[in-house]
């Protein structure tokens, strides 16, 4: 407020106002699921005539469709039902992780329409090779989307590392340093589809994308606008959502909870430091502690879950120990940020039944406000819908919703 | 952006627009230090006539004063110089800490006009007694302010505890639980000044107030809009400023970095948990480790500084050890939050020369982006102007700047 030096009623030019209002109407239809022109007008505070003109434009852009009449419209007259289009523009998300690549196409309504996952070990593989593999998967997804009359408006690539300005600064578990991921991926995709217009490529950290998926699509965050998201994979990723916005930090590197120090003299972490949380509660540490091959990947996690379910003592104690460490580190983060909820994703979601009691116990003990236990169920499993590929696809969808004109102009160009 | 469902050009009513624009003009004058009507008009994007009318009102409110003519005005004509008033409304800040109470009156320009500090041991003393003592000090400050033709527009009380909704939920080092601090303080002040209009009382956590003082008045944060603030007192307080805004958290309890776990099995902390940072790097731990009486307060800290300056090995190793622990905890916070800078206040400021190398070393080692050492001097001593009493007074000043009409109406009422 103090820094807002704009007088009220700025004289924005007409094109800017129209562009803004097109997004306003589109988002109103999107958020309502279905709506009439009259309903939208009431909701957004514009005249019926203005809304009708905006809706015509959105129909032309192909981002809104008409779906017959309502049975009982406002003011006695039935209205035409509007929904966001189930065909046309979509988001394409690509998640490159340590032991898999996932690709997802999401339509404007937020529905998952294509999903492909390939289990591969990306450790020590050349970045260009990994990105070529991801591009192949993406090209297949674009094909499947076309069969459903969907056309990605862009690709968003999520990776487990520090991502900024189109570049992976470092991704310790992949072994990447300074990789121009957007350029290389665009190149690889273009090589596979030489006759197609190049798709805009953007990128982000994988935990950020997963946290946004949780915010946009997850059931666990219903009504929750500020939460800490923790995802257990080979690395331990994190993200903070504050008032419905992802906290990015001064350099875009916020959320790296996996490198919180558990023991300054502890085992060396891939990041170069010693005793990071990842070395105590990452997937490899969990599997090793339970006597399962640390490199067994998804099979190993399934085996750990099976053993925990059967009450195997070494599996239970491995999970409990990781839970304790997670709880200690999370208590520090909760004391610092005071979020409404903590969401656990990745392998932690699968192990929630055995992990949560230990995590919760440390939080109840160590969160200073004493509010942790008072305040209802604040430790939650992330939604299975809240994965990074879906969040990445969602980021493209949000772009179209935020400025449908930019999408239409690019599509026409 | 996605959640902004307001169409552009809202038809705000005239009174609201005028109220908003009065603040706009007042803040423009405040931020510039001095300005002409023409200069303000250019800066805020309103017409010269509109600004003149707004300035008349601000002169009437007594929040702006005229200071003669500029030698060379815009458009060839000399303009009248405007400044915020050096008399009239002011902010009154009260800091209640463990071993002292400080009171401060700040004028609209942000200048410290009255400052009183009383060294008292508040541990184990009844809250009503402590608040009565603080009210006596505040009443004296109000008297000194009146001698300078300043009248506090409100009182803001800062305390080392979890403060929300006018109540201290808990302040472990004071031994307070559920104290209605605003009501009790207002009562105590009214008892001392029965013939005066009651002042509005507000309250906040002490580290929050200090961090805001740093943001508003400190030199160390010049150009820095996102920082982590850590203050060493008997407790260790913290606050996060993000893009020029204090992060309050879901319940108002964000920033409690003093209760980050250093060792889960460590000594019991006053908060009830074990092994909190406060037990390793708080004032008492520092003094004890250096062989100085833990209860010696400010005298003890001065003695520790003197010994460190003389190269006393046990003083140096005590400070170095605390610095290491601070660095380990801060690296976790920096990894999570990715701030531009970390500011150390309280006793850490005094000990900066001997503390900073150890803190910096751990940060360079453990901040994952590798950006810590690359990115210039990110660990800084808080400004001596950045104390909690000043920040508390500043909060009142900001309120007047944000809505001078509310102040004038209350003053007239």
UniProtKB/TrEMBL annotation, chains A, B:
Pfam families to which the protein is assigned, alphabetical: ROK
What family classification does the UniProt entry report for this protein? Belongs to the ROK (NagC/XylR) family.
Its name, as the record gives it, is ROK family protein
- From what organism does this protein derive? Streptomyces anthocyanicus
């Amino acid at each position: 407020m103090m820094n807002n030096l704009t007088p009220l009623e700025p004289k924005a030019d007409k094109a800017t106002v129209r562009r803004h209002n097109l997004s306003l109407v589109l988002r109103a239809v999107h958020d309502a699921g279905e709506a009439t022109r009259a309903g939208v007008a009431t909701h957004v505070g514009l005249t019926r005539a203005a809304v009708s003109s905006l809706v015509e434009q959105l129909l032309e852009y192909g981002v809104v469709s008409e779906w017959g009449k309502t049975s009982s419209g406002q003011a006695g007259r039935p209205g035409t039902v509007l929904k966001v289009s189930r065909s046309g523009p979509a988001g394409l998300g690509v998640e490159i992780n340590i032991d898999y690549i996932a690709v997802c196409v999401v339509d404007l309504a937020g529905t998952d329409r294509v999903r492909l996952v390939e289990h591969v070990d990306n450790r020590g593989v050349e970045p260009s090779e990994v990105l070529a593999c991801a591009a192949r998967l993406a090209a297949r997804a674009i094909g499947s989307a076309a069969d459903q009359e969907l056309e990605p408006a862009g690709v968003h690539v999520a990776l487990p590392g520090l991502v900024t300005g189109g570049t992976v600064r470092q991704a310790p578990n992949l072994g990447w340093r300074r990789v121009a991921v957007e350029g290389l991926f665009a190149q690889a995709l273009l090589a596979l589809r030489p006759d197609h217009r190049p798709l805009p490529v953007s990128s982000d950290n994988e935990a950020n994308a997963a946290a946004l998926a949780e915010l946009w699509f997850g059931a666990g965050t219903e009504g929750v606008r500020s939460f800490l998201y923790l995802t257990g994979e080979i690395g331990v990723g994190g993200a903070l959502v504050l008032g419905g916005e992802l906290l990015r930090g001064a350099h875009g590197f916020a959320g790296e909870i996996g490198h919180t120090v558990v023991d300054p003299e502890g085992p060396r972490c891939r990041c170069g430091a010693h005793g990071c949380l990842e070395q105590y509660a990452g997937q490899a540490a969990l599997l090793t502690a339970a006597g399962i091959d640390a490199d067994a990947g998804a099979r190993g996690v399934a085996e750990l879950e099976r053993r925990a379910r059967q009450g195997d003592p070494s599996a239970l104690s491995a999970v409990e120990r990781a839970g304790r460490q997670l709880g200690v580190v999370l208590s520090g983060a909760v004391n610092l940020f005071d979020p409404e909820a903590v969401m656990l994703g990745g392998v932690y979601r699968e192990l929630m039944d055995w992990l949560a009691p230990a995590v919760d116990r440390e939080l109840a003990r160590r969160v200073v406000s004493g509010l942790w236990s008072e305040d209802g169920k604040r430790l939650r499993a992330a939604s299975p819908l809240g994965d990074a590929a879906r969040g990445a696809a969602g980021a493209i969808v949000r772009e179209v919703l935020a400025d449908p004109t930019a999408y239409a102009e690019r599509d026409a160009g």
